Amino acid sequence: MTEMMTPRKHPVAPLPEAGTLADEIVKALMFRVGKNPSVATGYDWLNASIKVVRDRIIARWIESTQRTYEAGGKRVYYLSLEFLIGRLMRDAFSNIGLMEEMRDALASLGVDIDVIAELEPDAALGNGGLGRLAACFMESMASVDVPAHGYGIRYVHGLFRQEIQDGVQVELPETWLEHGNPWEFERRERSYEIGFGGTVEATTDKLGRVERHVWRPSERVLATAYDTPVVGWRGKRVNTLRLWSAMPIDPILLDAFNAGDHIGALRESNKAEALTRVLYPADSHQAGQELRLRQEYFFSAASLQDIINRHLGEYDDLRSLPDKAAIHLNDTHPAVAVAELMRLLCDVHGFGFDEAWDVTRRTFGYTNHTLLPEALESWPIHVFERLLPRHMQIVYAINAELLREAREGGLNDSQIRSISLIGEDGERRVRMGNLAFAGSHSINGVSALHTELMKETVFADLHQLYPARINNKTNGIAQRRWLFQCNPGLTALVREVIGDRFMDDIDALRDLERHAEDAAFRERFAAVKRGNKERLARLVSERMGLWLDPSALFDIQIKRIHEYKRQLLNIVEAVALYDQIRSHPERDWVPRIKFFGGKAAPSYFNAKLIIKLANDVARVINNDPAVRGLLKVVFIPNYNVSLAEVMMPAADLSEQISTAGMEASGTGNMKLALNGALTIGTLDGANVEMKDQVGDENIVIFGLTAHEVEERRAEGYDPRAFIEASPELSQALSAIRGGVFSHDQPDRYRDLIDGIYERDWFMVAADFDAYADAQRRVDALWTDPADWNRKAILNAARMGWFSSDRTIRQYANEIWDVPA
């Protein structure tokens, strides 16, 4: 069945005036929320307001779906285990063109829209950049009129809520569904059975030849769809984000319940609910790994069934699937979809292997997001085969075809081992990155540097075998959220001086360049930044009870906590600076506040230890009168999209200091620069292209390049030599290791610091002096406000190229073959 069997025009509801909106809000409050205005809570007003605007969105949603159906064009299906969508109200209200009208209507009722907007839960359905990229892509696909469905998981809790207790990260459930979700629509009619385990049987013809394989799962659950409308800019198109929730086929085993086994009677229900309860279960043990694989197969299988169901409702057979559906794999998490589509084509729809493989490869595209071997997922053969026995057979069959092509292509034995879908080093494992590569017609990196490194490292041999498949699509960000909504002051200022064209064509932001030399404009630009810094300072005061001076340099590093992102380098430099300020009080030090925000994976010991160190260093520095307020360190708990929307506009300095060659792209770097922050960073990921866009003189680059990092490692890097040659680094590491910041447990950081002395895989010691020197260059720039603000304006003006609209148009034209 298709979503709409009978083509029918649905008129778009006209946009109302503010006066009628107020009446509608009151009616929605009474008849759809069930509250009298006199007793309504903020959540009630929020719910009613969303439903009033949602009605307009639904009209355009239906029209968009109908238009796609009637055109008979190609759809994009974006499969991602993460969608870090954050709050949706401002996004939807602004894009549909009702933000100011709703503000006025609510004000007439005595309700402040900014107050109720803060009550909307932040949907933490992602871990970081990958999930936020998926959310920006969904908004951009709607904005540039690409018909698309996003597919993911409706996590009940999503990523954990982070609290900091005595400096330690504590993980708590994120209860984002506590007050319901007025944006979503449950689609019970879109439910599909998903199987696990069991056996595979082969049916044969009269001559004993295998005709068909039949998988008989031992476990089954239902995947039920929940749809959220994704509104494009000015309501041009409304696409669908479809998230799957797991439900048991038999909610309760009555025989067991009646026999007194009340817990056992609910066993199937509990197993099903566990599938979609939490994002990224801890994979440090086999149970967590198994649940992760179950999640990935669950949402991939449900999505493919849904795609095929829609396709067959409109077209005769699945041979036309590559012409009508572009299925995109956002990293390796949905890579099992390659084997699942092969299973559906061969076992359910009667395709031969060769024909199914051709259809599969022409349908899938794959984005790689990392060069870290541990992030290129692989699964132990015994786990994969037990959970997905038929898929294991298909992986072996694909691998046989892949290795045959490799031999015919002249690859040697070492290269063949490298491209095999089965890793033979130690425990035999299924390599999901190789499966995604083999099963896709396009494999893209997410920055120019990352794409070239893919060809040289993780996919070097696959690239030699298929030299036309790898291409680059540098990441981008949705400027509607990351400028228009999160920085209304700057947006209003830009509109005043260059007009509104940039709001529809972000490249027109370049018109701001000519105002960088205008002293009066620089002062107005600085005043907007000051207001944003005051807002962040108030937030820190309210949440943490810490007073901050908005006139200080706001130095911000906000991202997932990981050793390659080198929060540790930043902290060590803070300790070195602390020592210098105390030792040389006569110098004119630049007042600086170092902000950190980010979450560490629950099982990532060193990342959690880095969080503890940041808080220990903050406690000592912030309470030392000898520093005279010249340096403060702040770790803000529970970094998420909503907090980012406050921190991005307030940043003076953006820390993008990953070990070169290890950050695929980054998108926080783009958001911060778009809001007028200068970047201090390595030549890693998209920093390279940002440097090209903003100009060498408007960015602060330091440290080893990606190739220099590899050369150092190959030559036998000795971090101890760098430490002994740097008095500041040596002193800082000794202080941390010796317990200066951990009097209650003097050896708390001994192993962490010893790791720098002995291995230092992430080149903290090698890059420290260059980083410290770069920070002093930043100090010098800060002492010239006119020059600093000129550079900040040019950063903002030259970031239009990093719009996700540009990225999506490139995907559409060069990978998906859809107009945009």
Automatic annotation (TrEMBL):
Phosphorylase is an important allosteric enzyme in carbohydrate metabolism. Enzymes from different sources differ in their regulatory mechanisms and in their natural substrates. However, all known phosphorylases share catalytic and structural properties. Belongs to the glycogen phosphorylase family. It comes from the Bacteria. Gene3D superfamilies: Glycogen Phosphorylase B. It is found in: Cytoplasm. One of its GO terms (biological process) is glycogen catabolic process. Its cofactor is pyridoxal 5'-phosphate. Its main location: cytoplasm. The lineage of its organism: Bacteria, Pseudomonadati, Pseudomonadota, Alphaproteobacteria, Hyphomicrobiales. Pfam families: Phosphorylase. It catalyses: [(1->4)-alpha-D-glucosyl](n) + phosphate = [(1->4)-alpha-D-glucosyl](n-1) + alpha-D-glucose 1-phosphate. PANTHER family: GLYCOGEN PHOSPHORYLASE (PTHR11468), GLYCOGEN PHOSPHORYLASE, LIVER FORM (PTHR11468:SF3). Signal peptide: none annotated. It is an enzyme of class 2 (transferase). The keyword Glycosyltransferase applies. Its EC number is 2.4.1.1. The modification N6-(pyridoxal phosphate)lysine is found at K671. This is Alpha-1,4 glucan phosphorylase. One of its GO terms (molecular function) is glycogen phosphorylase activity. Keywords: Allosteric enzyme, Carbohydrate metabolism, Cytoplasm, Glycosyltransferase, Phosphoprotein, Pyridoxal phosphate, Transferase. GO terms for cellular component: cytoplasm.
